Amino acid sequence: MKSSLNFPTLAAMTWLLCCPLPAVDVRAEDQSSQTGAVTSSPESIAKGRAIFLRSCSTCHGADGKAQINVVSSAADLTEPNLWKQGSKPEEMARTIGSGLGMGMPAFKAQLKEAEISDVVNYIRSLWVQTAPTAEPQAPNK
């Protein structure tokens, strides 16, 4: 008897079993006036870290590297040059909000736009900052 489960179905089932979705805010108030992109700041990064640990670390790992005990297709968020969906803040927000098919769920129903911006700011804070190269010095004579 042939199994009707294929790889994408098994991957989705595995994800659903091990990656709980964050709680949905069901308050009756209109939250549209509370949304908007958030400028990066220590406060925004701290908020983003808390949301990331609660909503993203199951797949991407607590450090964002997605290397140990996580879903195999999760991106290493510390290496933006390897991303296929873009690393500009608006591209990252779109990916978080809309998801990536079965590989990553959409979070726009669970997170406000400002919370997504906080997560973007946190992820961008994980990137290694390269120091500017110094001007070459003339040899001493």
Number of strands: 0
Rg calculated over all Cα atoms: 19 Å
> What is the string of helix and strand elements?
HHHHH
CATH architecture field of one domain? Orthogonal Bundle
Return residue spans where pLDDT drops below 50 for at least 5 consecutive residues. 5-35
| Number of separate helices | 5
> Could you report the average pLDDT, rounded to the nearest whole number?
75
The top-level CATH class of one domain is Mainly Alpha
Residues in helix, %: 25-40%
Task: Determine the strand fraction and express it as a percent band.
Answer: under 5%
Instruction: Briefly note the CATH topology name of one domain.
Output: Cytochrome Bc1 Complex, Chain D, domain 2
CATH homologous superfamily assignment of one domain = Cytochrome c-like domain
**N-C termini distance:** 84 Å
Backbone structural class: mainly alpha
- Spatial shape: globular
Major sheet: size, sense and barrel closure?
none
Task: Give me the secondary-structure topology.
Blueprint: H1 7-18, H2 42-55, H3 57-60, H4 89-98, H5 113-125
Helix pairs in contact: 2-5, 4-5
How would you describe the overall organization of this protein?
With 141 residues, the chain is mainly α. It has a domain at 35-125: Cytochrome Bc1 Complex, Chain D, domain 2, CATH 1.10.760.10. Helices cover 38% and strands 0% of the residues. It contains five helices and no strands. The chain starts with 6 loop residues before the first helix and ends in a 16-residue tail after the last helix. Mean pLDDT is 75; it is low at 5-35.
